[in-house]
Amino acid sequence: MIHPGQQIENYRIDGVIGEGGMGTIYRATDANLMRPVAVKVMHGELADDPAFQGRFLTEARAAARLDHPSIVRVYHFGRQSGLLYIVMELVDGLSLGAYLRQLAKVNQVVRLEETLALIAQAADALGYAHRQGVIHRDVKPDNILVKRLERPDRPGDPPLRAMVTDFGLAKLLETEADTQAGLLMGTLPYMSPEQVLDRPTDGRSDIYSLGVVLYQLATGQLPLDIRSPERALAAHQYEEIAAPRTVHAGVPVAVEAVILRALARRVENRYQTAEELAADLRRAGGGLGDEETQAFAEETDSAIVSMVTELPTPARRLEWDMRPRLLRGEGVCRVLLQNHTSTPQSAGLTVETPRGGLYVDAARKQINLAPRQRGMVDFYLQPIKQPFTGRVRTLPFVVRVTPTPAMGEAGPGMEGQVIATPQIPLWLSLLLVVLAVALCGLSVWALSALPFISRLLAG
């Protein structure tokens, strides 16, 4: 595990973005160009394998050749101190998979015209890659990022851009296929029949996978219920895909035709190029009338939302609490954190003292949590000046937890107080003053009366 602050060549690691099957992805800063980047570091057991190293370098070179607005760019790749890594463009946005999971929780569906535009953009990217001799082999919602734009790329498109990422599994078409790895290079529900049945694959396999994503966005369901390799083999050999309009009657006929052609079991019946798919998607989207748009909205139990105006935010992946919130005199404030995800997470914790007057052992601390791990961070606080006498003073402080990278809106700070209690209470101080005054008065009286008392004793 690489910790924030560590450096790989000129890339400073800032935090964990997520975990993949081949490695961990970190948010980092290019110290030379001062720009944010994503650094994917391969798992140690893979990085130590000479055969994997060679395959990785071949795939990284293939990905680095790709230069398209809807493909996440590869800036650099290399080896250092036993690490094998690839440096990529950092896209400020969520994956389409994250959006789908968020929408499912609140029973919402994306507007059809936005779906068609985003999938057409992804098809453009795949078509370009195929022309460069590169196939993706793992097209799925989690590998399609959605980025908000200031203005649309094309007239009539929403101000969004789909960006295909993780060409780390891609292979040059002229490279001899690894038949044993064929079934592993993909995610079961999105894999083409030829991937599942261990047959030769080409760019049309990516077209099928993108068709699965389109089917899921348009109907809210996957075309086949696949949860295991055995189930995938049976489904692709013996089951027919339900027509989209039988699942969601509001899907326009033209859109259904595009989906079914993309999902044709036989590759010769499928779109032969991703550009053809993109063109038909735009044609279907441009032909949508008000009646079809209204029908799509009415024939579903889900609410129709726009990703432009209501981009769902990711669910908080870290939960935290603070105890105790009230310290008397001095003490340790403990922040408890829980990582609810299946990937490592990191967070920075800071302490603020609005009124000052407090000493804190460290203004900022960092914590890294493994999947499902609980952790704690302690802050020691005490008043800078401990009052000897007088009133009780209340010194407030605020602890803020900031996940890196930020996940949704930052939560409110957790407020606490340090009660600075004087060593001598106010009432006791007043009593001592009164007693001192009384004692002084008695002493003065005694001294003034001493001659008179002396005469009385002498007489």
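(the above was protein one; protein two follows)
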Amino acid sequence: MSFLQVNGISHVYLTKTKAKEAIADLSFSIEEGEFVSLLGPSGCGKSTLLSIISGLLQPTEGNVIIQGKTKHKPGESMGYMLQQDYLFPWKTIEDNCLIGLKLTNRLTKESIDGTLNLLDQMGLYDVRHAYPDQLSGGMRQRVALVRTLATGPDLLLLDEPFSALDYQTKLKLENLVSATLKTHNKSALLVTHDIGEAIAMSDRVILLSPRPGKIARTFQMPSHLRELIPFDARNDPEFAEHFQVIWKELDSLEQSPT
């Protein structure tokens, strides 16, 4: 059985005057340790799908199975990393990273040591007593990643976590996140508008159609690209070929009448 199964998910948003279908009969799976990206036009339901998978939103139809379970609490066995870091400004970096463990009553010497080790791996140990406003945007996102990993999630949901960063910092964090997930054998689902980011980081790229979001096409990345760090993958001769194919398909979807 796959690590994550999304089965026939549909979701409709209701307002006082009309109903808007965000996702229609969406199904796919993710294996343990696999990194999958969702690409698609704005408004195709990518972020809605992450909210459903996380348990924060109940779908109109369909279900999500994670490690064989259809019932899961919001955030259970999952980490959610967003575009904004949402760090508490009045708490130190260390305290921000420990907040998830405190909320789930798993704050032990072992879990604290594990979190401090993650901070060290991310090059943040020396600023653990600093406050968020003393750090750069890239450092804050690294803190957000440590906070996400500190609770030991099996699945990471990444909603455009690098889109607000400058390009150089973005590339560095792509490498860092990719290496960290491979080291810990974590499964991940990334929502992004960046075709290059999806190709460089993913084992597989799922392209969604305009609203309501449906799977238009799935692209399996070649094995030699998947073995490279994202920066090197961007410089591989085949990278441009895959970029052009996905770009043309996405452009075609965006130009199609809805």
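Reviewer note on protein two: The longest strand covers residues 19-30.
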